[in-house]
Amino acid sequence: MITGCTKQKPSVVTIDVAKNGIEVPKGLWGIFYEEINRAGDGGLWPEMIYNMGFEEKNIPPTSYIENGEVVAPKKPSYLFGRISNFIFYGFSPTNVTEGWTLENKGNSKSGMEVVSDNPLNKANPHSLFLKIDANDGSVNLINEGFKGISLVKGEKYDFQFYLRADKSYKGKVVASLVGNTGSAVYSQEYDVNNSGTWTNYKSVITSNVTDNAVKLVLQFKSTGKVWIDYVSLLPETTFKGHGLRQDIAQTLADLKPSFIRWPGGCVVEGFTMENRVNWKESIGDRMSRPGQFDLWGYHNTYNFGYHDYLQFCEDIGAAGMFVVNAGLSCSVRNGDYYEMDQMKGIVQDILDAIEYAIGDVNTKWGAERAKNGHPAPFPLKYIEIGNENFGPKYGERYNMIYAACKAKFPQITYINNNGLSNNLPEYFDADKIEMIDPHYYVAPETFFNTVHLYDTVPRSNYKVYIGEYAVNSNVGSGTLEGALAESAFMFGIEHNSDLVKIASYAPLLENVNWRHWPTNLIRFKNDSVFGRSSYYVQKMFNENRPDVTLQSALDLSTTVETISGKVGFTANSMGSNSNISVKDFTVSKGSSAKYSSQFPADTVKWEKTGSWKIIENAYSTGIPVDVVRTGGLYIPGNIRGSENQSRFKMGGGTLTLEDMVFDDCTISANLKRDSSFNGFSIRFGIADDKNYFTLSINNPRMRRPGMPPGLFGNQDMNQPVKYTASVEHVVNGTTLRLGNIGSSFDLNIGTWHSIMVSVSGKMISCTIDGVNFGELEYKGLQKQYAVAGYDNANREVIVKVVNGENTPFSTEINLTNVAKVEPVGQIITLTSASNKDDNSFAEPKKVAPVTSEFNGFSNSFKMEFRPSSFTILRIKASK
Ligand code: AHR
């Protein structure tokens, strides 16, 4: 148990206005777009007809259906060396008419089938075949869009469809948009060409209602055979006239992002290599774009393609960041890859993509861009090579791609997709790295504890792009609580922006009816959109980005906590479970022993998880238990490969001394690793199973660099490995690493090691096998931070303060070395009644910043910050 705030020191923030820190890059904050959560079709791309081309259930070329599920050819993952057996859980590949229903009125008799003979277009081979045997007035084919078609009164819409009918069909077709009340908003009768050729039927519709529950009804008036394809309904008013849905595009534009990452994310890698995003198929005539099975479980039509994306970048003044496949598919899905001698095509494809974006119109792909309506180059600035690919195979392919692209297009910045190295050089076998891309999906506590992460990262090697980050845990994500934690992490980014040059929150968009990822920045449905709490944090940072940082301390918390609670042991598990034995366990204070084990005749009570048994004079774990993992890593619902399942079986078992609470004490025991490559932990200060401290002895290779805990690298059981000790603080189930202690050491199976942990006030020290591993100071979980900077054009000091606690926070703010401070300035505050609050369709601005004028700034002033708040002070001050 943490006894909490035993002392409170007065807080003072001193900002030296004359002392510039680092330059904050203008392009620091960007956005990450991926086709996930149906971000594109029915979203940013405003198509209103669901399964418009009957391609919704296409699967990747080499994949097949087994027991009703999509599986890939059984190839070992390039990273793990074993077959994943990855399955798309919840994707029903046989429901090919999804989105369409057939209504037989009266005694009508008809059936529908998705077929691929005589296609309208080879790229999109499927069409819907209707066989109408009896028609009692009408046979109706109905599409309800993406959970309702939404029309706005007075707005114009372009409607079209293709029909092929043979001689047997001798009637008309009526297309109607039927509103919420059941009456037609629009209706048009078409004569049908029954010569057996595909014919395009189109109209411009002006809506006379505002209704978000409209459906399309195609009414067939005859018996006979007809084929239908490419049914489309698009608004005429779009963002800057370039086709995108006005409200969603504007919500993105309002963030004023400096760059847009596209197309992802995992979709870059693909379920299999054939399934990677293919930019060349995403440009030009929309009807000829084949689209792609989207590995989040639906069809991506490529309606929002490479050219459309580059156009959007230009329209909102953002730079382009195109992420390219590195010859490797997603390691945790199938993980198949191209051999080095197959890489030529991949490299050429990337060179062509860059040429398409920025090449002269006299080049092959520059000319293609001009043909598609844009002779001038697009603002492509970054190329990221791969997404979340790791290991030596990535290094080789990265080197090849980097060398070819840098030689031809040196003006582009190339990003290596690795995260921070954790000092494992095998992950960095690259010849030259300009930037790396760590990703963070974590709990709020982790971000509050990670503010200083980049303070000590060496500056000499490469720059950092934090390409994906968000609070993504069961508790706190998407609410004000999560947003405040993200703001604390962003303090650390701004403060270290000489190194962390660019960052993008992820993912960006979520159609609330198709959520594939738990937490996303912006939510929408067919007729409306809103930014979540985190959206406003992103916006506030970008709108209040200083030109330079000013020297001041980041940490504001003034509480000092003490450590006290129960003690015990854990057999560690990080993907695989270890078995351990414990003996000679004592807890002492000064020279007096408070507890001393006497296995096997121990009389005290133990709390246990797992199957601990007394064997001779020691306690040993048996078979590990499965526990549901919460926080930290989100496991997408559609990962269900057998390997993946077993990988997330956690917990080798815990053993806790019941009914005994210790504060300052020394814990000593002999411990032995009996199996697996994992180690063990001594736990202390245990309040409950979600709140405690540990001295954790682990195999460092169990964690892949830059990845959230839970994903791990390719392991060789027989390979000798050195173990390391770290002190961790587990808060509400989230592990916060306080630091490594000592140097690495051998932990051989079957060898007893004597471990001693001492707690004295805030100091935690450790001795292993008689070697003193040193000590570490516990500073408490800080949730209050400040960062300061200067806006040259407006001559303003910008102070950002986050108060992540549920109580007000007061501090004194001193501006030193300043010529003049104006009393009148601005305070921008993001807060709400509860940190569990978030925005919704009903209350889209429940958690949104409020700007007020403040008349009271001076060289030294006091300020109280509201509970759970993110506040920005803009103070007019001349240097
Ligand atoms: O943002 C969602 C996913 O998270 C991305 O596709 C992937 O890069 C990461 O694992």
Molecular shape: globular
Discrete helix count: 10
What amount of the residues lies in strands? 35-45%
Rg, nearest Å = 30 Å
Distance between the termini: 48 Å
Estimate percent helicity. 10-25%
Total count of strands: 55
Structural class: mainly beta
Bound molecules: alpha-L-arabinofuranose
Q: Could you name the ranges where pLDDT drops below 50 across 5 or more consecutive residues? A: 1-8, 422-426, 623-651, 703-719
Main sheet summary? 10 strands, mixed
Mean pLDDT, all residues: 89
What would your notes on this structure say?
- The protein is mostly beta strands and 879 residues long.
- 12% of the residues lie in helices and 38% in strands.
- The protein has ten helices and 55 strands.
- Strands 2, 31, 48, 49, 50, 51, 52, 53, 54 and 55 form a ten-stranded mixed beta sheet that branches. An eight-stranded parallel beta sheet has the order 22-21-20-17-3-27-25-23, covered by helices on one side.
- The longest helix has 18 residues, at 391-408.
- Residues 1-8, 422-426, 623-651 and 703-719 have low confidence and may be disordered.
- Alpha-L-arabinofuranose (AHR) binds at residues 34, 36, 264-266, 387-388, 439, 468, 506-507, 517.
- Alpha-L-arabinofuranose is lined by residues 34, 36, 264-266, 387-388, 439, 468, 506-507, 517.
